[in-house]
Amino acid sequence: MLTRRKFLATAACSMAAARLHSQGQSKVRIALSISKDATGPRMPIDFVGLSYEVQQLSDPSFFSAQNSGLIREFKALSSTGVLRLGGNTSEFAYWKPKPESPEPEHPQVREVVGEPKARYYAVTAEAIRNLAEFLQATGWNCIYGIGMGTNTPARAAEEAVFVAETLGNRLQYFQIGNEADLFDRHLRDPKTWSAKTYLQEWLALARAIAARVQVAKFGMPDVAGAVSWLTEIADQWPSIQAPPRVTTLTHHYYFGGPATKLLWWPGHEPRGQHSEPVETSDDAEGAEHREYHIGRSEQDGCARTHDRRQHLLSRRQAGCLRRVCRRPLVRRLFAAFGQ
Fold first, then answer.
1. In terms of C-beta density within 10 A (0-12 exposed, 13-18 middle, 19 or more buried), how is residue 276 classed?
2. pTM reported for the whole predicted model
């Protein structure tokens, strides 16, 4: 298995060798030694991950033990990764526990450019059972997104119960809502939507889930760009009586801008797949899903960052990943949410 230490050593040797070769030298051996006693932040064993839209579950055969090709690729990427299911389409999912379960009534929403249309779809028990088998086969864990935009506390709780029982210890935590700071565009009244009203709705859903899944853990607020929501929520948190167990604070970081095209490595374009640019969702190239783990801070108090991406990177962006440390912000969040 390729460890972090082996990766750093190999990368350093490769870069040094390439530099010497370009200078016309040859047959030069380079040795890099990294002390086992080196101190500093450590990369978590499940640092690597991928993000998919919840809508992918509308095809129960995709995340399943029968999809051997996908299992092979996941295991090649990491033996202990994290699959995040979320995205903008999660707001239009509804839980369908049985084949005969009727589709619920849905609220009216606005259609705006840049946001997904209200195309509702079902997440079934079969899809969750197959997902559990897929996670077991890959060795990965899951961050499971439950919609907020058009959901109800009762349906959210019913879905969460089945997901928790089926995924077991493969479930890291529930993420309620995706990029809720953008709800004022199409799902909520822009005159009243704020971090405060978001928290009120979030608590209603989270408490309904926690009442039936006593060990439930949550991540929040998973904002698109309003990072100030994290501190606004932190300021309100001490006044909340018996709050649900929040273990992770999250936000998205678009270091290259939201994606508009699906890019492939030159020479590896799928034949006959797409002749026109393909629109992608919020969790595609250029997006990081950044997490602040409560009670699991690194030695220097830095945030833990996951790069969970659904599509391939362009060559320009492939080298742009970076880890940003905001010590004052992280310490403030840990102080407010620490348990």
1. exposed
2. 0.73
